[in-house]
Amino acid sequence: MTDSNTPSASPAWNQPLRYLMFTGLVLALLWLLWYVRAMFGPLVIAGLIAYILNPLAELLMVRTRLKRHTAVTIVYLLGLTTLVVLPVLLLPTLLNEFETLAQDLEVLVDNAQRLLGRPVALLGVTLHLDQLVPDITSLIGEGVTSLSTNAFHLIESTTKNLLWVLVILVTVYYLMSDWQRLRDWVHGLPPAAYRGDVERLTHEISSVWRGYLRGNLVLMLVVGVSFTAAWFIVGIPGALVLGVIAGLLTIIPDLGPAIAGTLAAGVALVEGSNNLPISNFWFAVLVFGIYLGLINIKNIWLRPRVFGRSVHMHEGLVFVAIMVAVVLEGIIGALVVVPLLASAGIVARYLYRKTLGVPPWPDEVAQ
Q1: Average pLDDT over residues 349-357
Q2: How distant, in Å, are the alpha carbons of 71, 198, 300, 309, 353 from that of 55?
């Protein structure tokens, strides 16, 4: 006799209902992602920081046999201390050099205005260049006026950014603490028959991100330190700021270092050298020559060794993708767009080969 209190089995959904519910779930997820799109930038930054710091925590666990929570806390606090102490130590120097650099840029703008104000005779035609180029001084003045009239918006933006910094710091800690759990959760999402494929995909994607991101950070650090040291040695004013700019702009292939080198040469032309008894013109030539030498060493020798073959993409495509990302999303977009495209390529290759009914991995074909 069947107990009337025993719950009956849940009825199975028919196929149209399953498709309908799946479609509704996807649409709801897309709407949610669009609604919280403002969080993507901070979450991407937090993910990048956690991804970079996580190997340090794992190394500490292996060397000291500490539990993950303890190792993560130590690495996190050390990173946070470095993030606070370094700006405090460098802030006075950076402010002084920024002031010097701003004055030099003002002189460069004035010189450019005077140069453009001179009429140029070309094939019997007199050209007035100042009528072809907008008034740089007025543009700068408008920017300063706009800044003063929007002080309230500046305060509001600063408060909002501080809150996002807090979100990033908290997210980094929890991502590092639950890194292994998150990875196991992702691997457990697909059916058992496809878990091997998912693990293989995540491994290849992780290799791309690890190689590209760490390679870029190493490259930015080496370039920044090298140019800072070179500018200090030859005595260019604002050497620290110019070196930092060179390191940051390394993220943009070719164009970024060219901007940094041109800026350094412009400062050298205006200020001259603090250490070398040569004219400003020849000092600017020397600075630009040093830039060409160091940047070619980076491109020919350092860059291939840092990146290896981590990203299988054409250099032209990489350049276009980074330039578009800089315009649309800034420096963070430039940092992640290439590994994002490479990851999409890995997934697309897998789906394409599975659609054709051939083994998805090249080594399986070789066997």
Answers
A1: 86
A2: 11, 22, 29, 21, 33
